[in-house]
Fold this protein.
Amino acid sequence: MQLPDAEATFRELAEKVRGAVTRETALVGIHTGGAWLAERLREDLGLSGPLGTLDVSFYRDDFDKIGLHRDVKRTAIPFDVAGRDILLVDDVLYTGRTIRAALNELFDYGRPARVRLAALIDRGGRELPIAAEFIGAEVALAPGQSVELLKDAKGKLSLQLHHD
Amino acid sequence: MKREPEAPMSNNPQLDAEGQLRHLLTIEGLPAPILTQILDTADSFVSVTEREVKKVPLLRGKTVFNLFFEPSTRTRTTFEIAAKRLSADVINLNVSTSSQTKGETLLDTVANLSAMHADMFVVRHAQSGAPHLIARHVAPEIHVINAGDGRHAHPTQALLDMYTIRHYKKDFRALRVAIVGDVLHSRVARSQIHALTTLGVPEVRVIAPGTLLPSQVEHLGVHVYHDMAQGLKDVDVLLMLRLQNERMQGALLPSPQEYFKNYGLTPEKLALARPDAIVMHPGPMNRGVEIDSAVADGHQSVILPQVTFGIAVRMAVMSILAGN
C-alpha cells in the first residue's frame, strides 16, 4: 500500500478550499491532526476568520465500550458559533462517527449558518450518511489498517500506515 | 452487618485488574498518573462549564445516587450539578431522614437502590470506611465515590484543591504548602496530604496546636509547626481547615477567640507567607475563627474558584469511573 505524499495532498486540499471560503469563515480543526491542518489552511490561504479546535471525547458513541480517552484535549471555540459559516477540518475521514460527534459538540456552542467538511484523506468505509465537500486524496485501506497524520518539529506533514 | 475479611494492603480495592480506577474511595495508594489524568480531564470539563450549553452526553441513561448519611449542602450540590452536566439522572437521598431511622442497614439500603438500577453511588457517611464497605458489596458494573467518610478521606475535595493549586501555581515540584488548623478531625487534610506528596510537592507543612494534630502525623511526610509565624514563612499555598465545632469532644481548645488569636488567618499573618501565596478553604468557613473576613474576601483568596473547579473535577471523576 503506497500512501500519497502528505504535503502534496495538503496542497491539493488547500487549492480546493481556496475560493470556497470567505473572510468570515471560521475554521474548526478536530484534535489532533485536524487542528494542525486547520491552522495550516488558515495560514497558507491567508484567511483572517476565527480558528477553533474540537476534542470530541465527551461526545463519542463508543464511550460505553472503551471508556473515556486517556488524553482528552481542551476544546476551544473562541468565537460565536451562532450564524457562522464553519469549515470543519479533520485528517482522516473513515466511519463518519467522529464527524457526527463533532457536529453534536459544535451545536452545543450555537446554531451555525452552515457547516462544511474538509478532510486530508478519505479512506471510505462510512457507517453514517456523512460526506466531505473537500478531500485531499482518496485512499483505499483494508479494515485492519489505519493511517495517521504526523507533524515534525519543522511543521512538515507526513502519513504513516498502521496495521492493527 | 456481616463482617468481611480485610483485603490485603497490596490489593487496592479502588483499582481493577488492569490498574484502572473503578471506585474513588481515598487518595492514599493511588499512583500519580491517575491523579494527573483526573486533573487533565477536569481541565477539558472546565471549558464545557464555561459555554452556553453546559452539558455533555457522556452519562446519558445512567443513574447516579447521592447517598448522604450526613448533612452537606455544597458537596452534594456540586456532585448533583456535575452528574447533571454529564446528562446523568440524579437521585438525592438524605438517608439520615429516611429508612436508616427505620432500622434498615447500610448494605440493605444499597442493595435496594442497586435493584433500582443504580450505576453510581456518591456516598457521605459519618463512619470511616462506609464507602469501602459499599464498594466491596456492589455489582461489578456499579461505581462508588467517597464524598467524605468520618475522619478518614474526602478524595474529591483534595483533587479539586490540587486542580486549584495547579491552576495558579503550575508546577507541584517547586512548592511549599501549609495545611492550617484542625488536622485531627479533618478528612480533607488527610486526603490533601496524600495528594500533595503523591504529586511531588517537596515540602508539606501542618500548622496546628498539639491538641488538634493526630499522633505521629509526621509519618505522613509532613513537617509539623505549632506556631503560625514560623510555619507560614515562605509558603506558596495555604490550605485552611474548618474548625470542626460539631466534632469537638472534650476540651481541645480554650475558646474560638483564643484559637483565632493564635491560628486564625489575618492579613498580618498572611503577610508572613510569600507575597504571591494563595489562600484556600474547603468551606463552610467560620469567619472570625479560622479565617478573617479580610483574608477570605481578599485578593489572595481563591476560595470561590475552588468551588467552580470542584464541578469540573467531579465531572472528570464520574466520567473516568463510568468509562472504566
User: Anything to note?
Assistant: The longest strand of chain B covers residues 143-149. Chain B touches chain A at residues 20, 37, 40-41, 43-48, 51-53, 55-58, 319-320, 322-324 (CB under 8 Å).
